Amino acid sequence: MHAFSTSFHTHAFHLKISTTALFLLLTMTHSDNKRTEKIREAFFAQIQSEAKEERKQNRLKAIQSREKFVGRFLRMQLAGDLCKLVKEDYNSLNEMINRPNYHSFSIPKKRGGKREITAPDKRLLRVQKKLNRYLQFVYLGVRPTAVHGFVMQVSDGSVQANIVENAKVHVGKRAVLSIDLVDFFPSISAKKVKDLLMGSPFNFNEHIAVPLALLMTAERKLPQGAPTSPVISNFICLQLDETLRIWALNHNANYTRYADDLTFSADLAFSEEQQADLRKLIEAYGFVINVKKLRQRLKNRKQTVTGLTVNTKVNVDRRYLKRIRAMLHDLNTNGIEEATIRHFKLVRRASPEQRLLFVNRLEGSIAFIGQVRGQSDPIYQRMRKAFFDMSSSKKEK
């Protein structure tokens, strides 16, 4: 038995079928229940050990691959290195740097008003997407755990950063303080971006930092519409995040940031003096607080963090569910044209882009409900079925 067990440990576990067959053989050939149970326990312990080791090895490989990928980016010193990285010739890249082509337009906000977007043309967009991927991987190495917005998710599951995780931190607290920043992207200048790139963790020289800063800014500021703006804003906020983390720690509070939404929570209410202290700290980094949106919610009222309720658990607001139900009903009853006009409060016919935006927004909102409440939640399941039933019927027609 001993020799057989050695062979079992060294060879059988490499093949799932052989392992299972061997387990059945061992349990069937032992009439002693205690011995069978011991074998069963050893079997599952070995499986767990093998699986843990495999996950560890996969994560190690992913990290090594990530470091190699990032190394190509951080080693840049000359203009030619940048051209090679983004796969553009010198003249084309020089034109994008000195004469960047953007177009501006506005899109309706979910809660009324308009959001101004400054989007790059296709060529510049392609370059910015490549840069964004490198920047995101670099940020993973320095990201504070308090930051949950604009963070790339990796396949090994080592990063848990999203709107739900952001809200979880503040569940069940007596006081929740929400702070919103005004003109988050535009408040970050091209000079700040250049200085960022010349400092840690990049340490680029001017031959790289200047063209990179110009490739990622429009009119000397971060544009709302460039794929690189979110991750650059996260880098810019590194010192702010650390300052606010320490402040929260010293005041027995929790702190998270999701883009321009800053949230603090604690078991005691935040005093006027503490709120004023926070305002000074934030404004010292060049940001402006939206005073109209600064609010503190205590336990006896509905507490929300980035649109999610957190009084007892993370959940979608009832008004949000009601709004999505209304959008589904309108689409089903009156068709996409009328539903789009009503949703965006248009005074004329909806354009194809607006109709597509409406459908995408509805689908995304339903997916968001599933993310928050869980894929098996009956409300999510009904909404998802209703949406795809309508989509299928439209295709059939």
Flag low-confidence runs.
1-17
Q: Compute the gyration radius: what is it?
A: 27 Å
Domain count: the total is: 3
Query: Sheet bearing the most strands, described?
Result: 4 strands, antiparallel
What would you note in describing this structure?
There is one protein chain. The chain has 397 residues and is an alpha+beta fold. It has three domains: 2-71, no CATH class; 75-144 and 162-309, Alpha-Beta Plaits; 317-396, no CATH class. It is built from 15 helices and nine strands. A hairpin with a 2-residue loop joins strand 7 (304-305) and strand 8 (308-309). The longest helix has 42 residues, at 33-74. The protein is globular and about 75 Å long. Mean pLDDT is 88; it is low at 1-17.
Quick tags:
397 residues; three-stranded antiparallel β-sheet; four-stranded antiparallel β-sheet; globular; Alpha-Beta Plaits; alpha+beta; 3 domains; single chain; disordered N terminus
What's this model, at a glance?
The chain is α+β, with helices and mostly antiparallel strands and 397 residues long.
Summarize the SSE layout with pairings:
Blueprint lengths: L1 H9 L5 H13 L4 H42 L4 H8 L3 H9 L3 E7 L5 E7 L1 H19 L22 H6 L6 E6 L9 H9 L7 H10 L13 H8 L1 H13 L2 E6 L2 E6 L5 H12 L11 E4 L5 E2 L2 E2 L5 E2 L1 H27 L7 H22 L4 H19 L1
Antiparallel strand pairs: 1-2, 3-5, 3-6, 4-5, 7-8, 8-9
Helix pairs in contact: 2-3, 3-6, 5-9, 6-10, 8-9, 13-14, 13-15, 14-15
